[in-house]
Write a structure and sequence with these properties.
This is Pyridoxamine 5'-phosphate oxidase N-terminal domain-containing protein. About 35% of the residues lie in helices and about 30% in strands. It is α+β, with helices and mostly antiparallel strands. Strands 2-1-5-6-7-4-3 form a seven-stranded antiparallel β-sheet.
Length: about 200
Amino acid sequence: MGHKFAELAFTDAVKNIQSEQGSRNAYARMEVGADYNDSLGPNEAQFIAARDSFYMATVSDTGWPYVQHRGGPVGFVRVLDGKTLGFADFRGNRQYVSMGNLSQNDRVSLFFMDYSNKTRLKLLGRIHTIDPSDQDTLQKLSLDDRHRARTERGLRISVEAFDWNCPQYITPRFTRAEADLELSSVQAKILELEAKLRAKNAQN
């Protein structure tokens, strides 16, 4: 009951460490009341739609964790409803480590990052390959012709829980588009000052 992410992530071993470190009482309050943070709302949907990549963790049948970066055009991960994400899986180096792990254990952990605003969204879920006959869902995940990567499959994630993480220790980083947007006003000001300087020199 209570915060669904805490329910899944705070195992007995985790709670023991929290008790040893003095944070258990604060986190225990998250575990009471009705379930929440188990269905994506407008804020989560908007945040995910603005991302062009995420990190996905799986676990092998030998117990080793594996983290993979998945990227694409902005909005390639689609929020199909409050409990479901979907995305087109593009061909990469063809090692298929994540897909092999998922064939044995469908649990995934996702990190969606907004470095420029020091924001991250953590998500736990279960992932499955979309049946090729489900053309309605696959169509919702399709990309426009400008993205040339080959799509190997469609993947659907059933959301179990999510949590917004604190911004502490996230180093701000900017994409070229974000940097260009920030610099555009500076460049405009420089051009304005240069024009004024030329006009002043012409009068002398």
